[in-house]
Model the fold of this input.
Amino acid sequence: MFKALADEGINIKMISTSEIKISVVLDEKYLELAVRVLHRTFGLDQQI
Done:
């Protein structure tokens, strides 16, 4: 996750973790790009 966002030049401002999730805060202007990058990275953009 962190590498995928960094590779796209998306700066993470804050990270919060727990045993079951990771949350990040980033600039709103990168929101859509970040979602697309992470979907692609984790294969969530593929149709079944």
Q: What stands out?
A: The helical segments are 2-7, 31-41.
